[in-house]
Amino acid sequence: MKQVFHHATLYSGDQIFYDYSLQWDGIKILSFYPSSKAMHHDQGTDLKGKILSPAFIDLQLYGGKGKLFNNQQNLETLKAIHEQNLEGGTTRYMVTLSTSPRETIFKAIDTVREGMKQKLPGLLGLHLEGPFINAEKRGAHFEEWVQTPELPLVKEYLEYGKGVIKMMTLAPEKISEEVFQYLNDSGIILTAGHSNANYDEAISGFNSGIESVTHLFNAMSQLGSREPGLVGASLDHHSNFASIIPDGIHVSFHNIRLAKKILGNRLFLITDSVTESPEGPYKFFKGENCYVNESGTLAGSSISMLQGVENCVKKAGISLAEALRMASTYPAKLLREPGITGTLRPGSLADFIIFNSDYKIESVFYEGVSINLEN
């Protein structure tokens, strides 16, 4: 059945349209047009100028509502993550597993495979953050679970996780040409992170198939006067993407603004959000607007994606239109998932949100269906 919203401030992912109407039918967008041209039979809801934008896509997060995927690899955790995501405007997500032992990785693959089989809402696949990282830049990851990326082991994980593992964060300086070739043939998105690579090693990694950088500035070799490191290589490379955590704790808002000027439409937002988890191998505790582990090491954020968008606008000087694209359109470009564009165009999925000038979510639509956020 056709539905219509009128008098919206519509951010399509391409342009801003003021006083516009949006039509959708089933799970797809039908059209949008000036509300002044709406026909009498186009009865719908008057948004009174509220913002209507593509829903968000989060390619890196670990938990929600007290359930952490690092510790609890089950469908209940995936459902809890999705429920929390919706409250911040995110409808699609890549559940992430930090560096873990073999049996945990296999269990995570099994869980996500079952979730995808059951078509759990929003679930895009599994992002393995490790175990092929550099222990020197492990952050809150466990050193004893960092593994050497030998080809037989890499094959074991990727063959078992075929169709489930969609992204992998790794340290480029640890990867051989032989392993890079295999990883490229697998079709998963490779992203550099938890790395101590120098500039040349990082650039070589980008040229060998790494398409992105994981949480830019965090857990990586920094930009120095004589050695640009992974940060400098990321800012200098002509095509790589980079994710960034817009909470002002992981990264200064000055650095977010700087990275945005250089990377443009290749910088996208992740929440990197975790949840309080006092039991299990990964113990995280609520800090001041973040989460830390038992030793006080920064372990993840506590923001929603809409809070991240608001921070980009109010604290990093990024326009709302661009901040919204950083949370939707740009991660969709890296994802390359058929039908998921992070835009509102005729024929695109009817995944969109409505929020007001105070950045408060009023409605979330997932494949054309309004989600009750009170449940």
Describe what this molecule looks like in 3D:
With 375 residues, the protein is of the alpha/beta class. It folds into two domains: 2-53 and 342-370, Urease, subunit C, domain 1; 56-335, TIM Barrel, CATH 3.20.20. The chain is 28% helix and 26% strand. The chain contains ten helices and 21 strands. The protein has helices at residues 75-87, 102-117, 151-160, 177-186, 199-207, 229-236, 253-263, 305-316, 320-327, 329-335, and strands at 2-11, 16-25, 28-34, 45-46, 51-54, 56-61, 63-64, 67-68, 90-98, 123-129, 165-170, 189-192, 212-213, 242-244, 267-269, 285-286, 290-292, 298-301, 352-355, 361-366, 369-370. The strands form five sheets. Strands 1, 2, 3, 4, 5, 19, 20 and 21 form an eight-stranded mixed sheet that branches. A six-stranded parallel sheet has the order 6-9-10-11-12-13, with helices on both faces. It has a three-stranded antiparallel sheet with strand order 16-17-18, with no helix packed on it. Strand 2 and strand 3 form a beta hairpin. Helix 5 packs across helix 6. The mean pLDDT is 96.
